[in-house]
Amino acid sequence: MATEAAAQATGELAQARVWPDPAVRVGFSYDTFLVSGSQGKSLSVGLSFPLPVFERGRSDRAEASASRWAARRSRDLATAQANLEMPLLLRQMDELRARRVRTRGTTLPMAQGIVERIAKAVTAGGAPLQDLLQARRTLGELLADAADLELASFETSLALLRAAGTSPVAIDDLRQRVMP
């Protein structure tokens, strides 16, 4: 949109070059070397009208028109691409949301419970310490995976907002607009 407006302004400027810009010059000189015949004080006034004989802004108008067409075409292509990406991004967002709910609701609490039970068993002497270390390592990997899910969800929501060309809004509102 801004690129189109800039191209439009460039075209208008090129159109304005058809009419010449007159220039008025006023000068004053003071000279102390009068022996050579120079005048001590002189005032000069000049008026000039450049005549655009060869350059009348045609090339600039053509360039501005091409820029405006390219900007319009680019905007249309970006809109079409966003319309194609929107349903895919919404499905990806739903899948990520389901994985996040499953991870937070089931996987992480179960893994934390296992670590606590193994820790109690190690304290009581019924399990080796290596089992506890392995369980804690696995829990750490699950927590890292959960953080990766959060990041992927955030990045997908940003891509969704970028494709929609909107400011941050609720994803569900966007889903209702795109997928009836």
On the 0-100 scale, what is the average pLDDT? Answer: 84
Biggest sheet, strands in spatial order? 1-2
Low-confidence stretches: none
Please report the number of helical segments.
4
Question: Could you tell me how far the N terminus lies from the C terminus, measured between alpha carbons in angstroms?
Answer: 28 Å
Based on Cα principal axes, name the global outline. Answer: elongated
Percentage of residues assigned to helices: over 70%
Compute the gyration radius: what is it? 37 Å
Major sheet:
2 strands, antiparallel
Kindly name the structural category: mainly alpha
Strand fraction equals 5-15%
Number of strands: 2
Order of helices and strands: HEEHHH
Protein model, in words:
- This protein is mainly alpha-helical.
- Helix content is 70%, strand content 9%.
- It has a domain at 86-178.
- It has a two-stranded antiparallel sheet.
- Helix 1 packs antiparallel against helix 2 (58-124) and helix 2 (58-124) runs antiparallel to helix 3.
- The longest helix is centred in the middle third of the chain and has 67 residues, at 58-124.
- The chain is elongated, with a radius of gyration of 37 Å.
- It starts with a helix and ends with a helix.
- The mean pLDDT is 84.
Fill in the keyword field for this structure.
single chain; 180 residues; 9% strand; mainly alpha; 4 helices
Topology of helices and strands:
Layout: H1 2-16, E1 23-30, E2 41-48, H2 58-124, H3 129-164, H4 171-178
Antiparallel strand pairs: 1-2
